[in-house]
Amino acid sequence: MSRFLRFATLVLLAVAAVSAGTVVYFSDQPEASGNRAAAVDANAAPALADGMGQQNESPSELVGNADNPVPDELPASLEGTSLPGGWAKTDSHGSLIPTPQLRQLFEYYLAALGEETLPQLIARIEQALARLDEPARSEAMDILGNYLDYKLALGDLEASYDNSAALSAEEMQQQMAEIRALRRSWMDARTADAFFASDEAVDQFQVEQLRIRTDESLSDEQREQALAKAEQSLPEPLREARRETRKFADYQQARTEFADDPEALRAWREERFGEEASRQLEAAEAEQQAWEQKWQAYSEELAGLEDLGVSGPEREAAIDSLRDEYFEGAEKLRAEALDSIR
């Protein structure tokens, strides 16, 4: 897929996500209310503590317990999802190579805490790790135990912070240093770097943003130059994500500005993306608009059908017939999926 088509896809997905209120934004404004990445782990800490019940043992003591049962069915939130891949990497000696994907594997199951108990989810993770040969399997189990204990300790550390007020750059930096040290007290540096390098790079960038934006000695031009330089410290995938986000933001602004002037919007697209890419984006938008109009008309007829009070097999047959009138192929599957979450 070309760079432009990836962007066009991003635009359409982002439009849909905004409509659902679920867009993920790589903000240019620093989060001064606390450490962003640490919150990802710390938010789960209360549930992790609850998962321990009244036991005095640490979460790591649950690892390797053969009595932990694995339910036959997945938690409802994991049904239809795919297990993260790329985590089973070993070196020439058979030792585990820690990767961000290994942490993703842990979090994939731990996200279902509450639907299943902590011992059950640990057993699921162990079941996945069983594909590894020794010594990698034992090393992965050790990392799992350390990671669980770290998450619990992080919750305690975060609870000691007063994040009710906005933090200064210096206060954010201090919290980040404490959390970074905590991670490396529970995990070796190699594992901590593999698990948290991207998070820590983003956190540091947020601190630099706040420091630069609140530095009254800088002129506007100096501030913009300093922000651009700070962004260069981010890993390339994150810089690319920010570039794509800015493209989307610029394009959304142009769509609003030229909402009543299609020719002006077309000229803006051609100047920004080139003539061929502009035509592709215009076609993709027209297709999306046609879908939205079709979906709206279908939804209105469906509401009328529901008002008739039809139920059971007769209702399902009527809905299938209505879908057949409006959609076919992939569009019908899309409509069925959207109907299922109404």
Describe the protein's topology.
Layout: H1 3-20, H2 36-42, H3 45-51, H4 100-110, H5 118-129, H6 136-159, H7 169-186, H8 189-213, H9 220-231, H10 236-257, H11 262-273, H12 275-307, H13 312-326, H14 330-340
Helix pairs in contact: 1-10, 1-12, 2-6, 3-6, 4-5, 6-7, 7-8, 8-9, 11-12, 12-13
Folded structure, characterized:
With 342 residues, this protein is mainly α. It folds into 2 domains: 31-214, no CATH class; 275-340. Helix content is 66%, strand content 0%. The protein contains 14 helices and no strands. It has helices spanning 3-20, 36-42, 45-51, 100-110, 118-129, 136-159, 169-186, 189-213, 220-231, 236-257, 262-273, 275-307, 312-326, 330-340. The longest helix is centred in the last third of the chain and has 33 residues, at 275-307. It is extended and about 60 Å long. It starts with a helix and ends with a helix. Residues 12-25 have low confidence and may be disordered.
Shape assignment: extended
Strand content: under 5%
Using only CA atoms, what is the Rg? 25 Å
The residue-averaged pLDDT reads 83
